[in-house]
Hints:
Layout lengths: L13 H24 L6 H7 L4 H7 L11 H13 L7 H19 L3 H12 L1 H12 L2 H12 L6 H19 L3 H19 L4
Helix pairs in contact: 1-2, 4-5, 4-8, 5-9, 5-10, 6-7, 8-9, 9-10
Amino acid sequence: MVAYGVPVTEPTGRRERKKAQTRQSLADAALRLFLDRGYDQVGVKDVADAADVSVTTLFKHFPGKESLVFDQDDDIEAALVAAVHNRPPGQSIPLALREHILLTQTQLAVNTTDPRFAAFTRMVQDTPALRDYAHHMWTRHEAALARAIANEVGAPEDDIACAALARFALEARVLIRRHTDPRRTAEEAFALLEHGWATLHPHH
Length: 204
């Protein structure tokens, strides 16, 4: 399934593996059915039946139908926070975020050679509920990212500048994805963030 280029961590322990297998089989069944029949024509019961689990079990793993399409939400958030905390010495936070977002776009582009991925992308773009969910899923990570930035610069958790940087960095991804030259778009968008940021936090 689609993780926007984020590697999935290997769970340890039999129980965790079993949980991960159930989750994966549900996500795979959902994608297969959605692509075959169309997202709106498939219900959660259809997905549960295809994965040979109960609807109750399905809801233990996924809060709703849209979340079945995007099954690695937590990994995306963890990777964004790690991009800030684990950046190389001397690299600014805006630059670290720019490189992380470009990397996820590059890995996304590799997937486009898979016909299933192209069909998946079309389905998301053509289904308003999924399109909205995908956007909200990404921007929902804003709070965690803002906290990570504030932590790095020693600012209060509710610092407005940190929240603004998180918001603008996440929104910049929409511009980058839309443009034919992602690298140039990212450099121009993040140059604005970098120079504005430098006046507030010159060493970060």
